[in-house]
Specification:
heterotrimer; A alpha+beta (334); B alpha+beta (146); C alpha/beta (387); A: 334 residues; alpha+beta; Thiol Ester Dehydrase, Chain A; 2 domains; 7 helices; C: 387 residues; Peroxisomal Thiolase, Chain A, domain 1; nine-stranded mixed β-sheet; two-stranded antiparallel sheet; 11 strands
């Protein structure tokens, strides 16, 4: 292909001076998005092993010649989802010649028109057969379709469908891929504020009056504050015993058993990262104090006041462990 | 992290509405970076947090090839070595950032005998704290009969 | 203090979901209207009271309206629990001579600025006792007022066999009153019990129609001596009695650690103070404004204040006693479920109108009106009487 052809203008039909963006975009449909590429390396065991380690894929037909030979595949095969891997341009891709990078030109036009952001929305792969070590792949890519301008949650933009065809050393098609990307003008809000980090559960608020509780939870212990003056237990913790006004206290480790004294099933508003509905329970411990926690491992509709529960501890993230309660297992023997 | 091999179920044992064993995957920087490099995807947003932030993202995030890989693994963890994946169609949603957990669930939506092959359609969903990371439909076949 | 002071003027903005002006502007409009209603010049005001939660400083309003020197200013804590206490503290200031004319006010864009019911997950986490308090609940996803109240509601249902329908009848009554009140957000929009039952769950067992609105608006009241009030433009609403109350093991919205959480201990404290101070009892009250941010606590209030026995409020409400013509027509303006959520201040205005005889849904032969403030928190109440 020549650069002349790539501009897409025909001498018989001179371009109007102000061609609409939509019309300019549509001229890219049906063109190769880039020149055909051939894989640098054939399908090979080291790359397959590397992939399986990274993905945590233990399927033996990818890495264990014996198991693979005994299977329907009658020998080692590559994970089908590696289809695209073999023709990836790598860390230092060869820059395309002018006019060859049609996708790049298309993207450039959209960038200039203010559709500066891009995101992949769909990927569809079909596998005619599983690849085997030694297969050498080539890939061709075509700009299959460009949508009209669409309004999306991210912003207004154009969907571009790219179609890749993969052929083997004999020229037979081994697989195809459709990749849909959205090239869009980010919503003002999205542009000014980058996406937030994944929301975390609200933290407990820790100070000298309650630190023991949360440190205990971190060790998997449910502690109750105990007045050393009159031995009464109290929760939530406070600096002074309301009964004997002692400022001295220690803790007692709870056995972790109790009953549901009351409960709530929040539905709205949804606050990430919580999933709804869930159960917030007011738990009355056998020791007599109450605390708020979650009741888990049960359908919310099955929770009842008076239901026996026992504590467990969940690690929410690298900073937070929380006590949770689940229905007491009646018979703990197997 | 990886799942031990288990034998494939017989096609006749697979029924509409069956659910696949859930897979909870902790999304660590190591997972994201190693999967990106194993797929030869060297885009900086998949391995360099500083550059990812310059692109307006809060952190590095998982690449699409890896997402495809995890969907494939989720299927064959259940369908075993006799499985042959025919088609994977994924819709991409919330990014997978480090510190999150993606929970993958799957349900059998169709089973059909085609010649000696039992073709099974499975709907797969991978959710993280932000919502659906991936919603996929997968077509996979197992030898039938015998 | 009985009958020595009075509410001499009331003022308010419209109630909406988007006031399109600042809270300060709303406050100024309401205070200005209340002074006009009383027939007082701003320069005569020497005291101001509001909520700690209010975002508008006394001095900002004073400076804007032309109020001169202030010799008394005070703020009351605990959200809507402050409502009647602003009037109670104003009355104390007048009786002690700390001030002659005191304005009480509350202004909020409770819908258009920050939504009142959206939860505390974003609050700062300096480890003050107040923040530690939320820290016992937020990590477990107990974040919003509706959720905090739902914990009591579930226990109340368990102990007394109350049902969601019993809560729903409170809303139905309020909305019936709002339907004839042009100032109400839900003017001409009554609901049925079926509407309540089919509304979506917000914090099970609370449904959407158990929860009051979030509103934009402001209300102001002018308190002065009864003697002075008699010379002013309106018939005075005498402040027969005022009380504040916090109970044992009191928390803000989460008093879950008391032996009994099927009641509202702080409202019991109020009852024990208010009735003797007023020299009256429940039988002497012709109409009431019962704080109704969430329906279940309306039932508890009827019990704690002695209008019916413990656990009997469901029956009391089922018999239509909260509606016009019932034993205790309540929230005749529509309440916060029907008129607007101005943190209880709009209910005090309604009580004043009932005493004046100018309410839209006027109850016959009103001598004494009960008004209560925020429930689930340290709270307050008033008895207003006809002069």
């Amino acid at each position: 292909m020549t650069a002349q052809v790539e501009t897409g203008s025909s001498p018989q039909a001179p371009e109007p001076e102000e061609e609409s963006l939509a019309a300019r975009l549509q001229r890219f449909v049906g063109r190769p998005s880039r020149p055909p590429v051939s894989a640098a390396d054939p399908v090979n065991q080291p790359m397959v092993r590397h992939w399986c380690e990274a993905i945590g894929d233990g399927n033996p037909v990818y890495t264990d010649p014996q198991a693979a030979g005994a299977s329907r595949h009658r020998g080692l095969v590559a994970p089908p989802t590696m289809l695209q891997v073999w023709n990836m341009p790598g860390l230092r891709p060869v820059p395309p010649l002018p006019g060859e990078d049609q996708l790049g030109e298309l993207i450039g036009i959209l960038d200039q028109a203010g559709y500066t952001a891009i995101v992949a929305t769909n990927c569809e792969q079909e596998y005619a057969r599983y690849l085997r070590p030694g297969d050498l792949l080539s890939a061709t890519s075509m700009i299959e379709a460009i949508s009209e301008e669409k309004r999306t949650a991210l912003g207004s933009g154009y969907f571009i469908n790219l179609h890749e065809t993969y052929t083997d050393q004999r020229g037979e098609v081994v697989g195809t891929m459709m990749l849909r990307v959205l090239k869009f003008r980010p919503n003002e809000r999205a542009e000014s504020s980058p996406p937030a980090a994944p929301p975390r559960r609200p933290r407990p608020v820790v100070n000298d009056d309650n630190r023991f509780f949360w440190e205990g939870v971190g060790r998997g212990e449910l502690l109750i504050q105990r007045c050393t003056g009159c031995a009464r237990l109290r929760h939530p913790p406070r600096p002074m015993c309301p009964h004997c006004r002692s400022l001295e206290w220690d803790t007692r480790r709870s056995g972790g058993r109790g009953t549901v004294y009351s409960y709530v099933i929040p539905h709205h508003p949804p606050v990430p990262p919580f999933t709804y509905p869930h159960v917030v329970g007011l738990i009355e411990l056998v020791e007599g104090t109450r605390l708020v926690s979650n009741v888990i491992d049960i359908d919310p509709a099955e929770v009842r006041i008076g239901m026996p529960v026992e504590v467990c501890f969940i690690t929410v993230d690298d900073e937070l462990v929380l006590p949770q309660f689940r229905p007491t297992v009646g018979n703990r023997e197997r | 992290m990886s799942t031990a091999a288990r034998p494939s179920p017989r096609f006749e044992e697979v029924h509409l509405g069956d659910t696949l064993p859930e897979l909870a995957m902790e999304i660590t920087p190591t997972l994201i970076v190693s999967a990106a490099l194993a797929s030869r995807d060297f885009q900086d947003v998949h391995h360099d947090a500083t550059l990812a932030r310059q692109h307006g993202m809060p952190d590095i995030f998982m690449n699409i090839l890896a997402t495809n890989g995890f969907v494939g693994r989720f299927i064959t963890d259940w369908a075993g070595p006799e499985a042959q994946i025919r088609k994977i169609s994924v819709r991409l949603g919330a990014p997978n950032f480090p510190g999150d957990t993606m929970r993958m669930t799957g349900t059998v939506t169709a089973t059909e005998l085609q010649g000696g092959e039992g073709v099974i359609d499975v709907d797969v969903r991978g959710r993280n704290r932000l919502g659906d990371h991936v919603v996929a439909s997968v077509s996979v076949s197992l030898p039938a009969g015998g | 203090m009985r009958d020595r002071t009075a509410i001499a003027g009331i003022g308010a903005t419209e109630f909406s979901k988007d006031s399109r002006r600042t809270e300060l502007r709303l406050a100024i409009e309401a205070v200005s209207a209340a002074l006009d209603d009383a027939g007082l010049d701003p320069a005569e005001v020497d005291g101001m009271v509001t909520y700690t939660m209010d975002g508008n400083d006394e001095i900002e309003i004073a400076g804007s309206i032309g109020i001169g020197d202030l010799t008394f200013f005070s703020r009351v804590h605990h959200g809507g629990g402050a409502a009647c206490a602003t009037v109670g503290q104003a009355a104390m200031a007048v009786v002690t001579g700390a001030a002659q004319v005191v304005v009480c006010y509350r202004a909020l864009n409770g819908r258009s600025w920050s939504r009142f019911g959206s939860g505390v997950q974003q609050r700062a986490t300096a480890p003050t006792a107040e923040m530690v308090h939320f820290g016992w609940y937020a990590p477990f996803g107990l974040l919003t007022p509706a959720q905090w109240v739902a914990m009591f509601a579930r226990r109340y249902m368990h102990e007394y066999g109350a049902s969601s329908e019993d809560f729903g009848r409170v809303t139905v009554a309020d909305r019936r009153h709002a339907a004839t009140n042009p100032a109400a957000w839900f003017y001409q929009r009554p609901i049925t019990l079926e509407d309540h039952q089919s509304s979506r769950m917000i914090a099970d067992p609370l449904r959407l129609l158990d929860c009051c609105q979030e509103s934009d608006g402001a209300v102001a009241l002018v308190v002065t001596s009864a003697e002075r009030a008699r010379d002013l433009r309106q018939r005075p609403a005498l402040i027969r009695a005022a009380a504040q109350g916090a109970g044992g093991d009191q928390e803000v919205m989460t008093s879950y650690y008391r032996n009994d959480i099927g009641g509202l201990e702080e409202m019991g404290v109020i009852a024990r103070a208010l009735w003797p101070a007023a020299g009256l009892g429940p039988a002497d009250i012709q109409t009431a404004v019962l704080y109704d941010h969430f329906t279940p606590f309306v039932l508890s209030q009827l019990e704690e204040l002695g209008f019916c026995g413990r656990g009997e409020a469901s029956g009391f409400v089922r018999d239509g006693n909260l509606e016009m013509g019932g034993r205790l027509p309540s929230n005749t303006h529509g309440g916060q479920l029907g008129e607007a959520y101005i943190h209880g201040m709009n209910g005090i205005s309604e009580a004043v109108r009932q005493v004046r005889g100018t309410a839209i849904n006027q109850v016959d032969g009103v001598e004494n009106v009960l008004v209560t403030a925020g429930t689930g928190v340290p709270t307050s109440a008033l008895v207003l009487s006809r002069a």
